[in-house]
Specification:
Layout: E1 16-19, H1 33-38, H2 41-53, E2 58-61, E3 65-66, E4 75-76, H3 95-105, E5 109-113, H4 126-144, E6 150-154, H5 164-180, E7 185-187, H6 197-203, E8 207-211, H7 231-236, H8 238-249, E9 274-280, E10 282-284, E11 290-292, H9 295-305, E12 311-315, H10 332-350
Parallel strand pairs: 1-2, 1-12, 2-5, 5-6, 6-7, 7-8, 8-9, 9-12
Antiparallel strand pairs: 3-4, 10-11
Helix pairs in contact: 2-3, 4-5
Length: about 350
């Protein structure tokens, strides 16, 4: 019989979240896009305080750039010298910086997205992708690199590093970004695509937050996930997936190690690649719109992966969790219910009752 080791309760709890000033896809975010864009700097400060109240200490901006209207109409969420802010940010052009200010005041770590969901495919157009990312990295580092809570870069494109496209573009991109500003580098591919120790050495990133791939659409089957892992199997396979990922990540050995174990081996000067879980707290409805999942499913995701991961972050708080006392009802009743029930669950875990 297999015996599990005791798990640190904090690994069973959410401690980070992706954030966006607005959702990158208008259709996906249609249930909360209007309210999210309407948030004032003070509303965002309150939202960050609500996040901190349930243990969130790390923010990951999914993208620093909005290119949904094409390459001729690129907008920057942060104060850029190259691109204007989106039209809906008129009257609050420093919103990104004000969010970073509040995060710093709360003691949070902020990881900045350095690409855009609608920018060129970085595998097919690697040189152009490196050029564009370089502009963003330079500007963000000048603005925020000196901040106490600065946590480095998030690469927005989600190609799996175990594929040729993911591996090859990261092998080109990561050194180019480090040459501009050598900071922690994070990616977030899908957990069900797998990875091996040699790829971890090749891509040389510092954090991989694996999407747990539990977020589903049933009809239509948006990503083709339901055909491969329905509601039961999407949860059932998590321990196996993350145990294998942990095995690869734990293959790191110091370059100075006199007798490496070459059966599971990679080395990086920066140390072991951290293994985070990107907990999908959403599912799709029949219109391909995001809605919050129920707490019972999310706690299963947390518990099943906790023995193997270093940190649990969610996709995403804005629009999918929301304090009921916040003046702007972003995400509606389901988002408020998820916040309330998770807060109660978190207290129970910390008190040892769960």
């Amino acid at each position: 019989m297999r015996v599990r080791k005791a798990v640190d309760p904090l690994r069973r709890l959410i401690s980070g979240s992706f954030v966006q000033l607005d959702h990158w896809d208008d259709r996906e975010g249609s249930r909360f896009q209007q309210e999210l864009r309407a948030l004032s700097p003070d509303h965002w400060r309150q939202m960050l305080q609500d996040m901190a109240a349930v243990g969130i200490d790390t923010l990951v901006f999914q993208q620093g750039i909005d290119a949904r209207n094409g390459m001729d109409d690129i907008r920057a969420y942060y104060p850029s010298g190259h691109w204007r802010v989106p039209d809906w940010m008129r009257g609050k052009p420093l919103l990104y910086s004000e969010i970073v200010d509040e995060a710093e005041r709360l003691g949070m770590t902020v990881i900045h997205g350095i690409y855009a969901m609608h920018w060129p495919d970085p595998y097919r157009y690697a040189d152009r992708a490196i050029e564009l990312a370089g502009i963003v990295v330079r500007e963000l580092y000048e603005l925020y690199g000196h901040r106490r809570g600065f946590g480095g870069w998030y690469w927005t494109y989600e190609y799996p590093p175990g594929s040729v496209s993911g591996r090859d573009c990261l092998c080109k991109l990561v050194p180019a970004v480090r040459a501009v500003a050598d900071c922690p580098f994070m990616i977030a591919p899908c957990a069900d695509r797998g990875i091996c120790a040699s790829v971890l050495q090749d891509i040389d990133v510092d954090i991989i937050a694996y999407q747990d791939t539990v977020g589903l659409g049933v009809e239509p089957d948006i990503f083709g996930r339901y055909a491969r892992a329905d509601r039961l199997r999407s949860l059932e396979r998590l321990p196996f997936l993350y145990e294998m990922l942990r095995f690869s990540h734990d293959g790191w050995q110091s370059p100075e190690c006199p007798e490496p174990d070459y059966w599971n081996y990679y080395t990086r000067k920066r140390g072991r690649t951290a293994l985070w879980n990107d907990v999908e707290i959403w599912e799709f409805d029949h219109r391909r719109e995001l809605i919050p999942a129920e707490l019972s499913r999310i706690t299963a995701q947390l518990d099943l992966t906790a023995p193997y991961v270093d940190k649990q972050i969610i996709y995403q708080y804005p629009g999918l969790m929301h304090h009921p006392g916040h003046p702007v009802p972003v995400g509606g009743e389901r988002a408020r219910t998820l916040y309330e029930t998770y807060a109660v669950y978190r207290e129970a875990v910390l008190a040892g009752r769960k």
